[in-house]
Specification:
By secondary structure, the protein is α+β, with helices and mostly antiparallel strands. The protein is built from three helices and seven strands; from the N terminus they run βββαββααββ. The chain has two domains: about 1-40, N-terminal domain of TfIIb, CATH 2.20.25; about 40-135, GMP Synthetase, Chain A, domain 3, CATH 3.30.300.
């Protein structure tokens, strides 16, 4: 896998990978950017959510017709000093549907431990939470 990232002026960059899609990144105005793209740290949190989201939809494939919504919220806690890497990332799955929480927790565990290359690449501690049909479900399999 290769991604080529090209400076487009100011603090902005565009990355293009093997898939051929442009990913625009820019610093916030506080760091001299124009805010015309996602920040790299936002991309990292989104990449984690997307990676594990793809994994759980593959694992739960036989049950997807019972799921009405999957939303994944990621909240990163960063170090105070530079480099301000993430120390902890909290991942909350908000799922609506007629599915047993044990199946979802199993899919999350498999995604984290076996399939998600993004979570495997991070040094941060990753904590998971499940909201199923508006109710928090206890972690039964991690």
């Amino acid at each position: 896998m290769k991604v080529t990232t090209t400076w487009t002026g100011g603090r902005a960059f565009t990355a293009v990978g093997d898939s051929g899609y442009d990913i625009n990144m820019d610093a916030t105005e506080a760091y001299g950017g124009l805010g015309k793209g996602a920040t790299p740290t936002e991309m990292l949190l989104g990449s984690l959510a997307g990676c594990i989201g793809i994994d759980i939809t593959m694992i739960l494939r036989p049950h997807l017709e019972k799921i009405d919504q999957i939303k994944i919220e990621t909240d990163g806690i960063r170090k105070e000093e530079a480099p301000k890497g993430f120390t902890d990332i909290n991942v909350t799955f908000i799922i609506d549907g007629d599915i047993d929480s044990k199946k979802i927790w199993r899919a999350i565990r498999l995604g984290k431990d076996k399939y998600c290359s993004v979570s495997d690449s991070l040094k941060a501690t990753i904590n998971f939470r499940l909201m199923l049909n508006g109710k928090e479900e206890e972690n039964v399999s991690l």
